[in-house]
Amino acid sequence: MKKVKADPKGILTGSHYLDGDFAIAEGALAAGCRFFAGYPITPSTETAERFAERIPFVGGVFIQMEDEIASITALIGASWGGKKVMTVTSGPGFSLMMENIGLACMMETPLIIANVQRGGPSTGLPTLVGQGDMMQVRWGSHGDYQIIALSPDSPQECFDLTIRAFNLSEIYRVPVFIMTDECVGHMHEKVVIPPADQIEVVDRKWYEGPKEKYLPYKPDKDGIPFMVKAGDGYRFHTTGLTHDERGYPVINAACQDQCVRHLSDKILKNADKIVHYEEDQIDNAEIVVVSYGITSRVAYRAVQLARKAGIKVGTLRLVTVWPFPEKRIQQLARSVKAFVVPELNLGQIAKEVERFAAGRVPTIPVTHCGGWVHDPEDILKAIKEAAQ
Amino acid sequence: MSKIFYGNLKPKKGKIHINKNQCKGCGFCSEYCPSDVLEMSEEFNAKGYHPPRVKDEERCIYCQLCEAICPEFALFVTLKEDEEESQGEKSESRP
Amino acid sequence: MINDTERPESKNPVEDFLRMDRIPHIWCSGCGIGVVVSSFAEALRKSTLDLNKVAIVSGIGCTGRVAGYVKLDSFHSTHGRPIAFATGLKLANPELKVVVFSGDGDIFGIGGNHFIHAARRNMDMVVICVNNFNYAMTGGQVAATTPIDAILSTAPYGNFEHPFSLPYLADACGASYVARWTCLHIRRVTNSMQEALNKKGFSLIEVIAPCVTLYARRNRLGDGLNLLKYYYDNSVIQHGADTRTLDISYQGKMICGKFIDRERPTFLDGMNTHLTKALGDKYIPYGVQS
Fold first, then answer.
1. Peptide bond into A43 cis (omega under 30)
2. Which band of pLDDT confidence, cut at 50, 70 and 90, is reported for residue B82?
3. Which of A176, A203, A230 lies at the terminal end of a domain, its last residue?
4. Interacting residues of C11 by C-beta distance below 8 A, sequence separation 6+
């Protein structure tokens, strides 16, 4: 990976009043994204609209493709053409993209997909909040692979985490997902955009050796292969079929093992560098509230009330949801009495917490099918129940 | 023997190179050769196909149609230079 | 028996354009795809393009394997999506010349939507579609191009769906260059490919090719040579023919030729012209070539 200077052309330095969707577009431009292919879908359309308005003044391409499948595929092509790329969607479009998310993982292509989650399944609640795609982002495509998913809780974090997402994507050559939701996407808050020299931007590892010796999928010392782009004379081949280091398809079990484990190890072996969470008053906590996205802001109110009532509650806010912070949960399971996991779905991440708590302590999900955020009283009730 | 006509024009002559092991015996080359230079042989290659063989190389007029129509990239034609002019052969872009 | 390490002493000139470490290829004996690839290699050889800037994208299927064999920057994407992939590739680096080389089922079945929009936008790319009238790789199923009455595994009593006329579809969507040949028209195919490579805009070259193992076998049409004889006897060349008259019936006449060759602004041309007009000096033009 190579740290490069952020291009000031794309950066609207200053203090703004933006909604989460707009903040994602600004974050992308600040990170160096110069290609956007998308399709309108509520509640994410504003990001595409903002990008379309801004890109003519920054230098790049916005194209509204004919569907989400075309969008994600065009993204992969553009990434191999050398650009930093992004799309934005919601539940139904996310489902459409799944096959080619697999292609992006298999070809080890850096790209960003923001999912502004809404109530599902199917057409669901197009204009109302949900967090029901958290397992889908991890397992939506077929086969074994690893991705990185971030969950912002405010428009400011939408901006910051988008830049972080681009950097992670470039370093690990993997699709990175920004799993926000309609509430954060449509809420307007202050977003401070720093000047270009304070924004850290990373480029993918470009290959610079002799052309004849280039092997597209030979992992470097850090486990990640060097990348090239079309047009530089490497005459390389890349495919969605299981392939060897030359990029050629090899259809046998040995190659499959090597190929698939590499895709997994690339992320899991570097999980410590990728996983990011924020904790509050966790040291003596008896109950830990694990949450992410908009729910973490609602949970904050419940936690305040619980602490007033004398309960020792700590919070663990997941900033990266995938890779999941397994080690931290395992650690905490040895010292706390219970986990409380509120989320706007029927317990998708709660099951992960429970899995890594490994039966040492109970995990109490606070489920909610979406359409609105939790009532803090419900979370408080769960915390009180856990405290007994 | 080389015919000379219209002053100094001479018909081109070709030498056919057959990669017998790459051939899959489809027969396109021998069927469409306009000078009846090729026929499918009786011998087998490692994959069990009958590759073509050159019946009469003198008839080859270097039209390169066999080279263009082979789906396996298994045969190609090089231009035979006249002995008086130069030694050896060269290969050109197909007309 | 021939010694299996025997090779000619000199090199077949087409090898410069192929990944020879992967030849012999997987296509059947008598399959026409190899002939089209050979014609394509010749078009590349004759073209003045910098081959380092030519990229090839394939989909899934027998023709989809072409990307793996041609020695250019090559991409083997998912089923039906090479045109969308090529759109992204071209827009990210407008200096590239992007060729989509895929089959009829891939481009016009699952990929139909991407085809019509790329043609409508006049994306600058060359689409070479090898039409063998079926989905061959999966065992010979009916496709959007299969003639009525042909028997295939998912139409075991004969196909009753009306097929696409590919040049008509491309014309209706606004393609800039449309031609149809059979793989037997080797030099005309190469010429069309050269013209399309040198032309800006969306080009479609349909090349009809024999599918011996599936289409021919299931319909008892013989082998590759029999199908080539059918192409020889039944193809007529009518340049500029009305694209509405180009339907192919089962073992019927095939009208070949160059049907459309027109100028239209490409997507990037349109984008730059329009945004310059709307935004003046503040607009940063994209990918403007000298």
1. yes
2. low
3. A203
4. none
Q: Which residue on chain C is closest to B25 by alpha carbon?
A: C29
B8 is a domain residue: no
The ipTM is: 0.95
Query: 10 Å Cβ neighbour count for C181?
Result: 28
Number of domains in chain B: 1
Residues A130 and A13 in one domain: yes
Q: What is the pLDDT of residues C115-126, one digit of tens each?
A: 999 999 999 999
Query: In CATH, what number is assigned to the domain containing residue B85?
Result: 3.30.70.20
**Is A169 found in the same domain as A306?**
no
* C9 contacts on B by Cβ (under 8 Å): 17
Distance from C33 to chain B by nearest Cα, in Å? 7
Q: What is the pLDDT of residue C10?
A: 84
Nearest CA in chain C to B47: C4
- Say yes or no: A299 and A174 in one domain: no
Residues of C with CB under 8 A from a CB of A: 19, 22, 52-53, 55, 57, 67-68, 71-78, 81, 84-93, 95-96, 113-114, 117, 267, 271, 275, 279, 282-284, 286
- The secondary structure of A53-117 as a DSSP string is HHHHHHS-EEEE-SSHHHHHHHHHHHHHTT-EEEEEE-HHHHHHHHHHHHHHHHHT--EEEEEEE
Is the whole-model pTM more than 0.90? yes
Which residues in chain B have Cβ-Cβ distances shorter than 8 Å to C18?
73
A228 neighbors A215 (Cβ within 8 angstroms): no
Domains of chain C: 14-265 (3.40.50.970)
What count of Cα atoms within 13 Å lies in the side-chain half-sphere of residue B32? Answer: 22
Please report whether residue B7 resides in a domain.
no
**Total number of domains in chain A:** 2
Q: Is A29 within 8 Å of chain C by CB?
A: no
Single-letter amino acid, residue A258: Q
> Quick check: is A69 in a domain?
yes
Mutation for A interface: C78, C115, C121, C274, most A CBs within 10 A: C78
Domain boundary residue among A155, A172, A203? A203
Q: Which domain holds residue A328?
A: 277-387
| Cβ atoms within 10 Å, residue A278 | 12
Q: What is the pLDDT of residues A59-104, one digit of tens each?
A: 999 999 999 999 999 999 999 999 999 999 999 999 999 999 999 9
CATH number at residue A331: 3.40.50.920
Kindly give the pairing relationship between strand C177-182 and strand C202-208.
parallel
**Residue A283 shares a structural domain with residue A155:** no
Contact between residue B71 and residue C33 where contact means Cβ atoms under 8 Å apart? yes
Q: Burial of A209 by CB count in 10 Å (0-12 exposed, 13-18 middle, 19+ buried)?
A: exposed
Note whether residue B34 is domain-resident: yes
Q: Exposed, middle or buried: residue A310 (CB in 10 Å: 0-12, 13-18, 19+)? A: exposed
Contact B34, B63 (CB under 8 A): yes
Domain match, A33 and A136 both: yes
Domain that holds residue B34: 14-90
Q: Over 90: is that where the pLDDT of A179 sits? A: yes
Q: Is residue B63 part of a domain?
A: yes
Helix, strand, coil share of chain B (percent; to 5): 15, 20, 60
CA–CA gap between residue C132 and residue A108 (Å, rounded): 33
Helices A68-80 and C82-92, axial angle in degrees (round to 10): 50
- Distance, in Å, from the CA atom of B93 to the CA atom of C108, rounded to the nearest integer, reads 34
Cβ contact A–B (≥3 pairs, < 8 Å): no
Tell me the CA distances in angstroms from C88 to A81, C40, C93, one per residue in order: 8, 23, 9
Q: Using alpha carbons only, give the angle A196, A197, A203 rounded to the nearest 5 degrees.
A: 80
What phi and psi values does residue A105 have, to the nearest 5 degrees?
Answer: -65, -45
